């Protein structure tokens, strides 16, 4: 394995993987959860196809700052897998440049497991921050799916 830091998180959900895939690919649903718990997602757009693009805005509970992320879909295999680039804009993480995210949706008995791998992260500090951020996003997804 290379020494480039990466994030790998997994979470089990009590819904079919097709339902999880939909939450990751429908812009209206993404606005309900695609940010850490406590944040809101005031804007999300997604053209979910290889070569299609997405852009997401995340707003913390206090302050006026809004964090934007965008990227391009590389692989879209419903309901099994999404691969997309990830870049920040207009904040301290912009220095990371383009990274790569793979989301796998696995059948798991009466529910499903989501496995997210975020690669090409430039350093250990950014890795830690993104590991925490993705864990909070996946928890936000859990809350949205329960509503």
Structure description:
The protein is an alpha+beta fold. The protein has a single domain, classed as Alpha-D-Glucose-1,6-Bisphosphate, Chain A, domain 4 (2-Layer Sandwich). It is built from 3 helices and 7 strands, in the order E-H-H-E-E-E-E-E-E-H. A 7-stranded antiparallel beta sheet has the order 1-7-6-5-4-3-2. It is globular and about 40 Å long. The mean pLDDT is 94.
In percent, how helical is the residue content? 25-40%
What class would the helix/strand composition place it in?
alpha+beta
CATH class: Alpha Beta
Residue fraction in strands: 35-45%
Sum up the overall morphology in one term. globular
The biggest beta sheet reads:
7 strands, antiparallel
Q: Determine Rg (CA atoms, Å).
A: 14 Å
Which spans of ≥5 residues are poorly predicted at pLDDT below 50?
none
CATH topology call: Alpha-D-Glucose-1,6-Bisphosphate, Chain A, domain 4
Structurally, how many domains make up the residues? 1
Strand order of the largest sheet: 1-7-6-5-4-3-2
- In the CATH classification, which architecture applies? 2-Layer Sandwich
Give the H and E element order: EHHEEEEEEH
**How many helical elements?**
3
- Would you tell me the overall average pLDDT? 94
CATH H-level name... which superfamily? START domain
> What distance lies between the first and last C-alpha atoms, to the nearest angstrom?
40 Å
Counting DSSP E segments of at least 2 residues, the number of strands comes to 7
Summed up, what is this model?
This protein is of the alpha+beta class and 147 residues long.
């Amino acid at each position: 394995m290379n020494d480039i830091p990466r994030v790998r998180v997994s979470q089990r959900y009590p819904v079919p993987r097709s339902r999880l895939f939909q939450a990751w690919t429908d812009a209206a649903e993404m606005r309900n959860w695609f940010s850490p718990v406590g944040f809101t997602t005031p804007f999300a757009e997604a053209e979910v196809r290889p070569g299609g693009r997405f852009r997401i805005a995340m707003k913390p509970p206090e302050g006026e700052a809004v964090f934007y992320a965008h990227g391009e879909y590389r692989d879209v295999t419903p309901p099994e897998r999404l691969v997309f680039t990830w870049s920040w804009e207009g904040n301290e993480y912009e220095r990371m440049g383009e990274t790569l995210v793979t989301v796998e949706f696995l059948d798991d008995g009466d529910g499903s497991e989501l496995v997210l791998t975020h690669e090409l992260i430039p350093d250990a500090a950014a890795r830690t921050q993104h590991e925490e951020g993705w864990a909070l996003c996946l928890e936000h997804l859990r809350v949205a799916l329960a509503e």
